# Entry
Amino acid sequence: MKRYIYTKRLKDFTQSSTISIPQDPRIITAKEQSHINNLPFFDHSLTDSKIPKEKQHYLSEKLPAVKTIFGIDPINPAFINHKIPKNQPIPFRKLSEVQKKNRLSVTDLATKSWCELRLSYDLYSDFGQFKSRHLVSGTSFHQSLEDNLYGINKEWLKFNDDFKLDKWSKKGSVENLILDWSDCVIKLISLFKFGHAREISCHGFIEYEKNESVLISGIIDHLSWKSKKELITPDFQNTISYKKFDLFDDIFKLNSDIGQIIEQLEITVPQRLNGRYDLLVADVKTRSTFNIPQQTSVLKATKLQLMYYKKFLTQLGKSPSKTYESLLTNAKRKNIDIDEPLDPLYLASLLIKSPLFMSDMRRLRDGKKLAFEQFDLQTSNSQYNLSELGDVVPNDNSYNEMFREFFTLWERPFTLRYLALRLSQLYHIIGSLVSEKLLVEYYCKGLNFSNVLFDFDTDELQKNNIDTMMFWFGKRDIEPIYPNMKNILTYCKYCDYRSLCSWKDKSEKLCGELGNELSKIME
# Structure
């Protein structure tokens, strides 16, 4: 604080020639005392920047709701209490209630990325985070990166539109999870074709009590193969490039059968990549200016997020049989029936999206084994009859010709079990090759203007596990930002709750008292 006050005084001295410097610089004049008292962190009337009408309406409903839920501060009734009321559920139960899901996301594990009190107010308000223009544009940019790599399958979109297949996007449906997992299979295979992949699903479980764990889901923004030499180059993070990757071209030229491709990758990946290449896990952050965040908590949260992704990928890669069961547990935790056969029309849509699955569908149709014991031994009582699909898809439709061989009674239905099998094999291929280095990619206006490379830290991750689980499962109180002037100016200035937050009010008063004490000491 001394440094800030001294800098402020120097600035004032350079701007006004009417202030005289006293003989003893330790003595604060009356005018200087006035300047100290009027510093922003002692000012309770920070002016709001112009707030859009949509945000004003959002705040007009959210703030009263939060005040009703948390109640007034017992010391200062003009402000909201900063402790979760005893009549409210623990944070995890509240999140499950609001989002209709019994799990956490990787981003949920960084409760202190900004301010844990703000996160708690938002959570219990039922309003969630306001979707700002920057937030929407960030989502759009991630989609554009994905589309640039994989292209847009217009034929698949048209088929879905023609047959009104809207369950693909229905959260919590078996169709939505099948689309997610099938996309992940396709993308992990493309990782060996293009050298990098985007928007890859992963998951893990964290124990919060003995024999009790919570499912954690995440989506990795970017995976890429990098040579070990490249990763230790001093200026690597300033010269990141994505060159043509052709180490496995021979496999893709010879095969269109997903089973044979995976079998060949299992043999050749250790030979061609081990000791030479690492799989680099990266997170893409969009910025409104060409600057990386200055807040330590934001930077730490991003690093933790990447460390969880690395940890999960490594765990998923250890044993195909255990990962197969883990994926099925994942689905069960989402209350999805792992043995529910996929609607035939949706299966047709999936084959249009990626003919890569065609050979395996023939195996399922004919009841052939897929050389994976846990899957092959599983029997099904469900009839999977696609003979009526020929009546749904017109004879003059090109799709009728494409799928005609499947218009029959299948020996085995297409379910999530099949995708769990192929995903577990692919995770196993890449799991041991995940780099100890992690990368944050910063973009502004479509340009990658900065990158931060750092090392995985097991101790830091474990420390966060304990802390964040204690918060979500009600084992500790909310821990707001540390009450100092820098945090007030950084975190509170534009917070939705700045006019009602009792923690901010107490922190400002504390800083004011410290300022007065400092001035008395220096008199």
